[in-house]
Structure to design on (162 residues):
């Protein structure tokens, strides 16, 4: 089944206009430039392949975010056995590095949250999405998203107080 070139053009424009956001979301999951770029590329590929599943072009944003988040989570699952070095260890080997993180404790606390909670925090506060959009992206009930958001904020508050 051939997808209309109009829909392909809309997807292309959307991806190009929001490439920084897509990269930032992928990077927030994997904390690695190359992996984040691979995730964005894979997401675009999967979106092109499954463009016929997009029933309403108005929902392209949430549809693509779902693909992007799922690709990010797949990458994390594939790399569970890989041990990554903490950024502080890596930076200790570099001579002149300026720390750009002003809230490093927050980033560490976010990294310690389960994927399902971290996804909600990232999408809500870093990407400024509405609860309804997050529920659509993660394919969850709105009340589930609200509950997880509350629990994740509570866990972050406890970790930050420690």
């Amino acid at each position: 089944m051939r997808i209309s070139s109009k829909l392909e053009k809309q997807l292309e424009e959307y991806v190009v206009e929001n490439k920084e956001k897509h990269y930032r979301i992928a990077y927030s999951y994997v904390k690695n430039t190359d992996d984040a770029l691979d995730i964005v590329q894979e997401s675009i590929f999967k979106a092109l392949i499954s463009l016929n599943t997009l029933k309403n072009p108005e929902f392209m944003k949430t549809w693509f975010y779902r693909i992007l988040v799922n690709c990010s989570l797949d990458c994390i699952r594939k790399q569970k056995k890989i041990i990554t070095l903490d950024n502080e260890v890596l930076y200790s080997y570099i001579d002149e590095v300026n720390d750009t993180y002003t809230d490093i404790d927050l980033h560490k606390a976010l990294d310690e949250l389960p994927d399902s909670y971290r996804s909600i925090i990232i999408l809500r506060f870093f990407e400024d999405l509405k609860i309804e959009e997050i529920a659509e992206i993660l394919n969850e009930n709105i009340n589930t998203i609200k509950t997880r958001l509350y629990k994740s904020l509570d866990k972050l508050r406890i970790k930050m107080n420690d």
